[in-house]
Specification:
This protein is mainly alpha-helical and 202 residues long. Helices cover 59% and strands 7% of the residues. A 3-stranded antiparallel β-sheet has the order 1-3-2. Strands 4-5 form a two-stranded antiparallel sheet. A hairpin with an 8-residue loop joins strand 4 and strand 5. It starts with a helix and ends with a helix.
Length: 202
């Protein structure tokens, strides 16, 4: 994913000013594609120059008033092409795993404390994601796996099950579920790493 496409996506969801975009990145998109405020404002200028977005006209221009941006047809076409693009998965580069490999050669040192610190951070992030899911997608969550529930067939017949929620809502929830599953993996793996280090240090 690239920052310009993240911005186009956010503006399609809701036309926003640069300040509003930075706040939305801090609260949602930034969890899986981070960007500084300066980077966002710089990309807004580039997207406007490319003809992908435009500043919404203001009825009564006021000095210092925030400019709101919306996506133009060319911007939507760019996003459609990017969504359809074929890309290979990115190779995993994790410094923490490399540090464990190095510890096998030079000793664990204070690594157990660092594992505990990372474990705490991932637990906090997992709790944050779960709270967002409860707040924004609670009506979609069905079984313990968190997938969208299905409505049973009605008396009048029809499809055996009807999924709750529209495309936008369900796909946003799917992205959040990826974050939840990722954090669950890290919590589980770090708990295993901590137990292994305690045994080795004992």
């Amino acid at each position: 994913m690239s920052l310009p496409h993240a911005i186009l996506t956010a503006l399609l969801e809701k036309p926003s000013s640069g300040l509003e975009l930075t706040r939305r990145f801090d609260m949602s998109i930034g969890y899986f594609w981070s960007a500084t405020h300066q980077q966002i404002y710089r990309e807004l200028g580039k997207l406007e120059q490319a003809g992908f977005i435009r500043a919404l006209p203001q009825d009564v221009p006021t000095r210092g008033q925030k400019r709101e941006y919306e996506v133009l047809p060319a911007g939507r076409e760019e996003l459609v092409a990017w969504v359809a693009k074929s890309e290979d998965p990115k190779p995993l580069r994790d410094a923490f795993g490399l540090r464990l490999r190095a510890a096998a050669m030079v000793g664990t040192g204070e690594l157990l404390a660092e594992v505990g610190r990372h474990l705490g951070l991932h637990r906090v992030q997992l709790a944050t994601y779960q709270e967002i899911e409860k707040r924004d997608f609670g009506h979609l969550v069905g079984g313990p796996d968190g997938r969208a529930e299905e409505r049973p067939e009605g008396r009048s017949g029809g499809r055996a099950a009807e999924r709750v929620g529209g495309r936008e809502e369900r796909l946003q929830h799917l992205v959040l579920r990826a974050g939840i599953q990722m954090e669950r993996f890290w919590v589980g793996w770090l708990e295993e790493a901590a137990a292994e280090l305690r045994e080795l240090d004992g």
